[in-house]
Amino acid sequence: MKQTELKKIGIIDGMGAFAGARFFQMLLEKISQENLPFPEIILNAISVEDFIADPSKAIPAKTIITKRIEFFNQQKVSMIVMACNTAHIMHTDLLKIAQSPFPSIIDLVVTDIKNKKINKIGVLASPTTLKTKLYEDNLLRSGLTPIIPDKKFQILLEKVIRMVLNNKLLKTDIDKLNTFTREFIEKNQLGGIILGCTELPLAFQKVKFKDIKIFDSLDILANAVVNHLKC
């Protein structure tokens, strides 16, 4: 095993408990695959009001997350990550409080897309993420072309996200997601798809889309933590 300085990671989770659990498992698997020492990990699962479809409901959540970041500061973590795309509507303000690196999952995904030299990209995300243009604006600033699902597809995405949140996802939901996604790709001649909600990777069957690049925000965030541990 490599002799690497042990680091301490703070993870903010709980807005989607099952996605958070998957992120934690994915991170541990990647650390093991890289033969890195397992760091101290503080997993802070919070309980907040649902703001998937209503950005105004994120205000109470921001207060709670702020307190968690202050706790991480006290614990002197070497990195903070937030395993929720939608919660990144408050990332700019939270970043001012953090005393350690606190990468934006949105920035990480967009950087990965730029490195893969893909221009036309579809954005699958929660209503709040789409409404606030978290990905859309960032992609445009980077000279990329974001394509947003139509209203009918957005309604399905919200349903799938909520089913994952409540651990009630059905095969019919997965099948519909596959069908809508394939039509979305072909209609818009996309070069890639962003799974811009951490619940979506738990419902999305990547094996059915091997012909297109899938940017899994959970996977990309886990890679960022692993890269931090290597430093």
Automatic annotation (TrEMBL):
Entry keyword annotation includes Transmembrane helix: no
SUPFAM superfamilies reported in the protein's UniProt record: Aspartate/glutamate racemase
InterPro entries for this protein: Asp/Glu/hydantoin_racemase (IPR015942), Asp/Glu_race (IPR001920), Asp/Glu_racemase_AS_1 (IPR018187), Asp_race (IPR004380)
Protein origin, superkingdom: Bacteria
Keyword Isomerase on entry: yes
Gene Ontology MF term list: amino-acid racemase activity
Pfam families to which the protein is assigned, alphabetical: Asp_Glu_race
Signal sequence bounds: none
Keywords attached to this entry: Isomerase
Protein family: Belongs to the aspartate/glutamate racemases family.
NCBIfam families, per the entry: asp_race
Protein's name according to its UniProt entry: Aspartate racemase
